[in-house]
What does this fold into?
Amino acid sequence: MGERLTSAGGLAGHLDGFVRAVREAGIPVGISQAVDAAEILTVVDLLDREQLRHGLAAVLLQRAAQRPTYDVLFDLWWPLSDRPATGPDDDEPADGAPSTLDVPDDAALAELMRAELLRRLQDGDPEELRRFARDAVDQLGQGQPTPSGQSYFSYRVLRALSPDTLVAQLLAGLLGDADRGGLAEQVARQTVRDRLAAFKAAVEAEVRRRTAAEKGRDRVVKNAVRPLADQVDFLRAQAADLAELRRAVTPLARRLAVRLSARRRMGREGRVDFRKTVRASLATGGVPVVTHHRPRKVHKPELVVLCDVSGSVAGFSHFTLMLTQALREHFTGVRAFAFVDSTDEVTRFFRPGADVADAIARIGREAQVVAFDGHSDYGNAFDVFADRWASAIGPKTSLLVLGDGRTNYRQPGVPVLAGLVSKARSAHWLNPEPRRLWGSGDSAADRYGEVIDMVECRNAAQLTDFVTTL
It folds into this structure.
């Protein structure tokens, strides 16, 4: 591989560094998993890079969503060998491989390599594709040298080779004389997409490897490793991140439901029944050896959710409304209210089995959440809620407020919120902004925090922590 690991101690140290990098990227790796990873090195062929990749992944990863992050780190710590694969005659290029000798200009070189890329894609050998990607980065990916060394860019390679324009030729090669439009074409198209994606990923991995060699692995890790889905800020989440978050919502909702309703299950820990305890003590000479308790009255768990759906927290509101939908599966009484500068009940949009995306779209079209200019007005939103639905909150109700607390310099309505909190059994506010920004600019989060438990909740990991410690 790219680094020389000449002794067992060097290999163990290298593996330890890799495991630490995986852990620092947000993938939980315990001591037992690290021991298993060391055991993997004794049972796989260390010269077979893909066997090593899959072997370590099997013991270090728990979820499929962790795989992209792991692959980036693996390519940096266990890079493809710098030495190219050679055939029987080491002095001659592989059959059909482009030679850089006698190439008149960059355009001609790119055209030769493009033809070679087509051949490699048709063959579909993953290892050969990775080696070709290495050569392509070496020939076409160099930018202007900098004082810190040579720079390489994947976009230069992909622009020169334009692999996406080879789809028609690849399909023709895979299908041959087969009829178009049937299952065979669908399979061929998927094969082409997979091979093109593998080549692009190999180019990016090679650029990262060369950058790590020039500027240091730690610097590349900081910029190249994307946060895991549960660490992505809700306010910056992309469509792919939201898809992963949807899969995390149901177990989180289940745990949140259990935590919020735990106080209703008192069992033997209710109030002491003084009369029964004294009567029982007569059998032990007046000493209350055994205490008796009154079972507390069991009530149905109730939850009221107040969610800011303004544009400034669109990503967060999308996720929290998904959470609201999931909570309905575990609470018998969940009422959801959305607001921008006015408030409306949106429980009707979250019936069991309803599509969350459709529900959110209907809220935008049908819910009366905008009364004036469509900018957040927490004070008026709280006033409308208190006027129309004050009875929704009572001694059996848990109140959950979701929003960034930015009031656009309007009245925050702290006294109204304090009144609602005082009526509820428990109340919490989940804020998607970093704690350091609370109270800055038009944020009234610090003032709200004086009357309600204000919790920083920027990502799914923090939401998990909130649920765990609730």
